[in-house]
Amino acid sequence: MASSRKPAPRTDPSAPLTDKVARALQAGAAFVVSGGAAAAAPTVAVALSGGRDSVALLHAACAAVAQAGDGARVVALHVHHGLQAEADDWDRFCAALCAQWQVGYFVRRVSVRPAAGEGVEAAARRARYAALAAMCADSGARLLLFAHHQDDQVETVLLRLFRGAGVAGMAGMPAMRPLDPRSGVMLLRPWLDVPRAGIEAYCAAHALQWVDDPSNADGRYARNALRAQLPALQAAFPALAVNVVQAAAHFAQAGALIDQLAANTLATLARAGRDADTLSELDLPGLRALPAAQADAVLRLWLRDLGVRAPSTARLAAMREQLIAHAGGEPAIAHEGMVLRRFRERVLACVPPPAVAPAPVLLDWRGEARIVVPTWRGELQFFRDDTFGVPEAVLRQPLRLAARRGGERIVLRPGGPARALKQACQEAGIPAWRRAWLPLLWAGDTLVLAAGLGMHRRWPDAAPAPRWCVAWHPHAPAQAMPPR
Q1: Where do the domains of the chain lie?
Q2: Which residues contact 266 (CB under 8 A, 6 or more apart)?
């Protein structure tokens, strides 16, 4: 079992690794506070697999927090993939280690199910990040430490080179980035400039113990296959690690410049979605006016700001061709849990239409100005209109918000004819894929409102009495995308 030895005095040669963790925590805490979080000492989480690097990082994080003396709490987060027979043993090891070091321990089991065209490694990574985000929420952690080191960075950059990555991919792993767009958690990698040998020396200095993952020797995995070849490469090119990391830094600088230029353009083209299914939209004529490389940079940044990974170069070119170059049709391109569409000179990032319409919602209106209906992603709004409004007596009946069933008719202007809803939607330019989020409001068997079209406007003459306009206001969908 791992040592419970207290952090070493400052004369210990392993102290620089602890200092790197301390500086990373200070930088991460500054970003958390600048993002609007309270200035109280944060909870610091360490992604703990039970392997050598993560055990060393947990030890160093405990030492850094103890030296800071600011009351911060350290917790460990373990993801149980279930991919190895030893997974239960690793869980028990991590739990025992955290109990010995008096560190809070959180574990989450995940099922690795590769999507179409996705490898096991990528699927496991996606599941791991989702589990870590959930455990950060459970523990209250705002800072999440990863034990990636210089050798990991070299492997990452070389693998991406072999796969034809662009500027962003060749920048490697960043030392700090948001875990995802909504969590408020900063992901920190304090040891990216530390070689594996430095971590081995740290473990030796503190007599740390860990568990080994036998899959790390499986040459069927791309990273392991590359790792086996690195000693020969380093023998031929002694400065390989330093130069690869330096090249990644150059790519990161170039990527930042491209992002800034793209951000300036994106600010003139993008705006928030105006419909219940739309996250964001881009001005299509403005996008068409850009050179292809600039349009690609804008699309990449737009997708990244929406919280999803950018597509490959080939797929991005295909997207651009469908969304920008082709003039006809209304393409729908699935990507990372959203659907990209072209509609009426706009490029839209939409949530997928529901497989099943939301269930009907029964309402009892008591004079409120608004009624929020979360399942329908919007709200009903009421205001007085004694000329053309709905008689109050109608609205005092039991109300029901429900999906279209077909065959409904509505009068949309006083004195106008009754029209089929399908025809009215077509004339109003409401596409079929959006109608799934536009409910109907009924008072008994009487249609009161068709969201996206307006109120029913034919009501019997009645004695003077309050009348009310009813409107439907859609809420923009939440951005719930996986981390990059």
Answers
A1: 15-236, 253-350, 361-474
A2: 298, 301, 302, 305
Nearest to 339 by CA among 297, 277, 285, 288: 277
The partner residues of 349 in beta bridges, in order of sequence, read: 280, 340
With CA atoms as reference, report the closest residue to 188 among 199, 173, 177, 172: 177
Can you spell out the DSSP letters for 111-126? Answer: ---PPTT--HHHHHHH
Mean pLDDT computed over every residue of the chain: 87
- Fold designation for 253-350: Chorismate Mutase Domain, subunit A (1.20.59)
Alpha-carbon torsion (380, 382, 386, 391), positive or negative: positive
Angle of helix 150-162 relative to helix 222-236, nearest 10 degrees, comes to 100
Using one digit for the tens of pLDDT, what is the confidence trace for 82-106? 767 788 999 999 999 999 999 999 9
- Tens of pLDDT along 381-419? 999 988 888 999 899 999 999 988 888 898 888 878 888
- Domain at 15-236, CATH from 3.40.50.300, 3.40.50.2000, 3.40.50.1980, 3.40.50.620: 3.40.50.620
For residue 177, give both structure tokens.
Answer: 């980035």
Contacts of 451 (CB under 8 A, 6+ apart): 378, 438, 439, 440, 441, 472, 474
* pTM of the shown model: 0.73
Instruction: List, in sequence order, the alpha helices (H) in 110-221.
Output: 120-139, 150-162, 167-170, 196-205
Name the token pair of 5: 């030895």
Which residues belong to the annotated binding site for ATP? 49-54
Say how far apart CA 260 and CA 324 lie, in whole Å. 22
